[in-house]
Amino acid sequence: MQETLSPMRLAEFATYYLIAVNLFAFIAFGLDKARAENGSWRISEGTLLMWAFLGGSIGAYAGRSAFRHKTRKQPFCTMLHSIAFMHLMLVGLLLSAIWAGLGGHVNWGTGDGQSFASAYGN
Fold this sequence. Notes:
Blueprint: H1 7-38, H2 45-67, H3 74-101, H4 116-120
Helix pairs in contact: 1-2, 2-3
């Protein structure tokens, strides 16, 4: 018998995925900066943007800031900003779909110990 993926389990998987991909993006920016300073083999801009596109835009921005790397390359910055904007639009779309699925209202709890998770989840 095949087990179905519950919304809570899906949210857990998505959280772990986003943590991992943002960590990889952050590390990639740090490695590329170190390699640039040492004159060794570099990580391509396409690979850095790929990690951002796969969900690591927050890690990419954090890496840019922490390592002061790729902050002035205009085509790269424009692409990274576009990816981050696309991610914001996807989050907005997802939140509006969740909101609509809840009938446009949320029971945040009645003060009797019933939480949002227990009311709508597990």
